[in-house]
Amino acid sequence: MRNSWRSLLRSPLVLVVALVTLWFIATFLVFPNATLLIGTFFPDGRFSFRALEKLVSSDRAMNSLWHSFLLAGTLAVTVNVVGIFIVLVTDYFAIRGARMLWLGYATTLIYGGIVLAAGYNFIYGRYGFVTNAVGNWFPDIDRDWFSGYFAVVVVMTLATTTNHMLFLGSSLAKIDYQTIEAARNMGAGTLRILWRIVLPALRPMIFAVTVLTFLTGLGALTAPLVLGGTDFQTIAPMILTFSKSSGSRDLAALLAIILGLATIVLLAMMNRVEKSGVYFSVAKVATPLTKQKIPNRAANVTVHIVAYALFLVYAAPVVLIVMFSFLDSSAILTGTITWDAFTLGNYATVFGTPSVLRPFVVSVVYSALASAIVVVGMLFVARVVHKHRNPVTTLIEYLLHIPWILPTILIALALVMTFDRPQALVGGQVLTGTTSILLIAYIIVKIPFTLRLLKAAFASVPESLEDAARILGAGPLFTLRTVLFPLVIPTAAAIMALNFNSLLDDYDAAVFLYHPLYQPLGIAIKLSTEGENNLDSMSITFVYTVLLMIIMGLAMYLVYGRGRASTGRRRRVRPRWA
What we know:
Layout: H1 2-10, H2 12-41, H3 50-57, H4 59-92, H5 98-105, H6 113-124, H7 129-137, H8 148-159, H9 162-173, H10 177-185, H11 190-201, H12 203-218, H13 222-227, H14 235-243, H15 249-276, H16 297-324, H17 329-334, H18 345-352, H19 354-387, H20 391-399, H21 402-405, H22 408-418, H23 436-459, H24 463-471, H25 476-504, H26 510-513, H27 521-528, H28 538-577
Helix pairs in contact: 2-15, 2-22, 3-15, 4-5, 4-8, 4-9, 4-12, 4-14, 5-16, 10-11, 12-15, 14-15, 15-22, 18-28, 19-23, 19-25, 19-27, 22-23, 23-25, 24-25, 25-28
């Protein structure tokens, strides 16, 4: 500890990094949230329950609380049912076409949020293609059939199974196949092995993704906002509505605080259960899992039918969005498709009209800047936190995880309420209403994820490399620049791509903080879903969505696919050189 303090105080670079980080934490993480709390419970300088009284007396606010917990509880069930099923049919059971099924289920990896909600609205909503097509045959159809609680649950169930595919599938691959073989030799059937061995082994990950799913449903904004209608609004849309009026902003702040407290409690429960639980353990040297055949013919056929039906549900929106991007909006409005309706005019409009392309460019610029800034900044912070372990760096690390336990809308609302007046911490500037505040919010929400992965990357670098550089006379800065950074740059590049991906179609932070003259893509897509008057922009939105899917798919390939392909090439080349 003493040596860590000495090295910390001796290095100018470390001191600068620590001071800048502490200023950022105080200015944008602690101060805004403290201001939100004070403004809610101390409106006139004295403690008051006025906001709580307004909440209890507001039917809309109380209904939104009930709807949020109802949605979160429902998703905890539906997402697990669907998510566990698609993991089993792609990674555990021997299902024909499993690779194709996986690709269909993985479509939500390349589009989500406001893009996903808008896509389903344009296909199944009041003015959607399917609704219009059915309406041609049955004029009395309820055009709002895909709205409210049902529509939100369906869309969010399909959208949030990505955690199961990414994390539960990885846990399933670690199960020792010898255990399954031993159970089979003792006479256990396929269903009994699944229920008594496989699922208990996945229990920690199932519990973790269940908590994440519950939190996602609790803080859902885009799906209830686009598809919920007037009868099913959750906490997040109500926060957005109340925040637009100065008279109800304290009510919005209280709802955001309740959302944040629920998040903290659930995460604390998850950590406690994970620490105290005793789970199924596998062998240290596990035999790779072999896919299991379903011996019962009827069950096998049923599983295949359900698997391919889900494949169609997952893949249909992607196929339709790509097709609709080449259609005139009138064809979507009438629900009829002819060869004459196909056109390249939508793409020509997007790329040939600066005002139409502008939201896409704005989102790309914001996402690129935020991704680059947070990765570069956290490279130095992660290095300091990993190298110098003392109370100051430990405190810095904990405080930088604040955005992980607070919803994005709470962070955005706190920034709006804090920086709508001059603040000394930012040189007396007013940030609310400027282009910089959205960039700051994007940086804030990506700090914990970036820090955790970069810290792990530095921890994987052997200390002997740094020792060798020091013995050879290299200084700390030279060692950092020429030895350590090159080793963690691949991880940093992957994090940058993932951050860029997730910010492109952001709506949660943008709706509170965007500049009117620099409207990001998420806002433009949301506006295109509002009513029949915006049907002309429907085809343009489909073009936006296709471009987003291409960019996100390319980023996912660069992060995951390219590395695996290059590993495979190295493995194939090695015997030839040998």
